Amino acid sequence: MELISADKRILVIGSLNANPADRAIDRKDIRSMQLIDDQQRISPVAFFNTWGELGMSSMCWQEQDPYILYIASSSEVFRFDLHAKSYTQLDIPNLTDIHEISMIGDHVWISNTKHDEIVSYNIIEQKIGQRINLTDFKSNTPEEGEEEQDVEVVDKFHCNLVFEGYEGDIYILVHHTSGRQLMKRIAQKFIKSQGNGGVVDITARKRYPLNFKAPHSVRRINNQYWVFDSGHFELKVFDKNWNFIRTLDTKGFGRGGDMDTARGIYYGGVSETRKRYLGLFPGGEAVPNMVQVFRTGDYTLLGSIKIPNIEQINNVYCLDKQVADALMQFS
What we know:
Strand content: over 45%
Shape: globular
Oligomer: single chain
Largest sheet: 4 strands, antiparallel
Mean pLDDT: 90
């Protein structure tokens, strides 16, 4: 079975590692946006080679016009018109450490991770819709371990995705569902605890602690939610009510994924194990950057494609070939 259909292309967005201690290659050698064709040939989208301090972050579009792309670096969001070969920067100040952007209706939703904030941008009116400070959603119930000695509490959700639930509510995916990150002092240094990751229904003000460690990339697939439990090297599947269904093993830290709906194929990004963590996980030293390919009907892993010229994968998208061709020709 071909991993990629002839009428599709897989776009992988990647970057340098954020922590200089994890870096092994120079910024000039990063190819932040790369397209994979049906023969598994990988070609950089050269226009973006120098974009972003570390590389690019994420992308979204409306299904009715996939030639209008919204593409984010870690601190800026741009509107690209592939018809006109033009782009503009959206006027959204004070964005830092953007993890993922998503299209919900006529709004681009931005996870402004550094500032513990989510931001919506109205693409019709071309202005900011909402800026929601997540502090308002913090739990008042102390986390287990908060009272221990040598523990510091940091008010932080670490939101990396805004998404729409099956019932139409707005959700966020977070590393800490209580909005509190515990920092433990070890050998005179404070080391962050990954906490109880999960999702928070912003509309209904309801939290779902799901025991995730550093989760990423919730996707709606076959009336289920698929989400990377990244720190546990797993891809987990839930029903519409967030009841656990099953786990799929990944080779490493998962982040970014998209679906070829016509074929029932899911493409998930897995990043190379970072330098600081080598030796801590079984087989960690052997894991390269890759896209793992799953058949969604029976949860079967069909294969994987190694991704060169980046240090970490930030996102993965399944594009129509014509859209990918237009992106490749952008200049």
